[in-house]
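Continuing the series of single-chain predictions for the mutant panel. This is the parent chain; the variants come on the following pages.
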Amino acid sequence: KGTQIRPCMMGIHVLIATPGRLNDFLAMKNPPVVPLNRLKYLVLDEADRMLDMGFEPQIKEILAAIPAGQQYQSIMFTATWPKAVQALAQQYLKNPVQVNIGTSGEKLTVNKDVTQVVLSVTAGDKDDSLVRELGKLGDKEKVTAMVFANKKYMCDRVATGLGKHGWKAAAIHGDKDQWERSQILKRFAEGKVRVLVATDVAARGLDIQGVSMVINYDFPDNGVEDWVHRVGRTGRAGKKGAAVTFFDTAADRKSARELVGILKGAAQEVPDWLEALPPPPPPPY
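Parent structure:
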């Protein structure tokens, strides 16, 4: 904390912080590390994700620490608009203006510039399917791809396996230190790494130019909302992209109906087998 406290106390224009660390600094009041009496703008970025991760109490603490009567503007950015985010906005934003860019705001949609392919793949066939789909991209020295898996150990295993097939692959996930993740992302952006295998730590907030394809090795545990974020790593800023999703009809069918709706809304081809999947049985009492 020491290396961060000093510049804060010397005076800054912009502070970018995680909720927990900011609350640590707000608790230091003698002298104050982050005086909020000069606050002009408060930005909550990825508000939906912060709520998913359980940060609502920390956000409330930050807002409660702002001096009464302080005049400032609040801005909230969120790619999806679930009820929890709506409630937070209604509670803490005064007379908010809602601006929707590219979607209806309350309905999950995907970028129509990204061609979606959903394949029925069992767990045992995913490795071969991954190598085959990546092979369709062409020259291994000219294309880049992001592969998403749900488990941290699986990211490391998949990246190692791709290396044996001649791909320059690396993995990032929550068990890697921040400096290591930053270094891998830098190498990926520079083209020194061609395939980035990641958990959902890389599903949001990354704007890496020229990602040729996104492959969902696993369908997200949290369902289609995280899937929308993942496939949004390609086809950015008006460019075309492609996304391939491996869908295990046994493990993932709870998300089938909602996925079909999103694909249809983006004018994407929906496989017959996906549309015909019955809903899962209700959980036992």
